[in-house]
Write a structure and sequence with these properties.
By secondary structure, this protein is of the alpha/beta class. It contains 13 helices and 9 strands. The chain has a 6-stranded parallel β-sheet with strand order 3-2-1-4-5-6, with helices on both faces. It has a 3-stranded mixed β-sheet with strand order 7-8-9. Helix 4 links the parallel strand 4 (60-63) and strand 5. Helix 8 packs across helix 11. The chain is globular.
Length: 297
């Protein structure tokens, strides 16, 4: 029988993952947004009328939600899927929601004989649509072995970081510490270049050719320059995602009694941007926290 994969949450990442996996597996998707459901249909992804209907009889359920509250609602809310899952099904959680949240979900799912792979992803929508993601995963050994063929299709780099749920979140927390700092630093650098009267595009080109280069500078830099100039940049990763993720980073560090001053400073920049109404803007718009208006030329 064909492997049935359900994708719940057809946002920027979920839709691309679903579209990529269609043809390799029998894929069904669901999202509460009618617009996202229509986009999924246009991409050749079969859809269901509800999350529960999509998850019924699925072998694997890929979940792309924003936070722990959304996961709990998806599983156990009024229209939750927990009662529709067959014994032996495996949830592949691609979201960044924190270690304790995943450990709690895993314990509850075990009671109904459902496994979980803690598999937060990195790479962005374009790479998701090519099966080119970085996936760091934690799962019990038997669940990992069963889910690996699906994970292999999702990822170009698949790292098994621990044989229990929560370990994937642990490494993703480390990843987001670096990403959050790098994006904020890229914004500060491009803002400084602008205030110095430099051509920002040429400055970015020069920086990317030297030791200061980073993925986040090269990826976010052009959109940060747009935001600096007051232009509307394409939203590839919302700013409020890093409000959530940097809170996970700093809360985790506090629980360990560890200081993370650079992460804490970056977190404040995202929070200021959030308070200024930038939640739904691209995270590169954090540049405006340190440069609220373009320099005069």
């Amino acid at each position: 029988m064909a492997t049935k994969v359900t994708v719940l949450g057809l946002g920027a990442m979920g839709l691309e993952m679903a579209a990529w996996l269609t043809g390799k597996f029998t894929v069904v998707g669901f999202d509460i947004s009618a617009e996202r459901m229509a986009l999924a249909s246009e991409r050749g992804v079969a859809t269901a009328d509800s999350a529960a209907a999509a998850a019924a009889e699925a072998d694997f359920i890929i979940v792309a939600v924003r936070n722990q509250a959304q996961l709990n609602e998806l599983l156990y809310g009024e229209a939750g899927i927990a009662g529709s899952l067959k014994a032996g099904a495996i949830i592949i959680l691609t979201s960044t929601i924190g270690i304790e949240a995943v450990e709690s979900a895993a314990a509850k799912l075990e009671e109904i004989s459902v496994g979980i792979v803690d598999a937060p992803v990195s790479g962005g929508p374009v790479r998701a649509g090519k099966g080119d993601l970085l996936v760091v995963a934690g799962a019990y050994d038997d669940v990992w072995a069963t889910a690996k063929p699906v994970l292999d299709e999702m990822a170009s780099t698949l790292v098994f970081v621990g044989n229990k749920p929560g370990k994937g979140q642990a490494l993703k927390t480390v990843n987001q510490l670096l990403c959050g700092i790098h994006i904020a630093a890229a914004g500060e650098a491009m803002a400084l270049a602008g205030r110095l009267g430099l051509d920002q595009e040429k400055s970015l080109e020069a920086l990317m050719a030297g030791a200061a280069a980073s993925f986040m500078l090269g990826d976010r830099g052009p959109r940060a320059i747009q935001a600096y100039r007051g232009e509307t940049a394409e939203v590839k990763s919302r700013l409020d995602i890093f409000v959530k993720d940097m809170r996970i980073v700093t809360d985790t560090a506090k629980s360990l009694g560890m200081a993370v001053p650079l992460a804490a400073a970056a977190e404040q920049e995202y929070l200021i941007g959030f308070e200024h109404g930038q939640a739904a803007q691209d995270d590169s718009s954090v540049i405006s926290v340190v440069a609220s208006r373009p320099a005069s030329r």
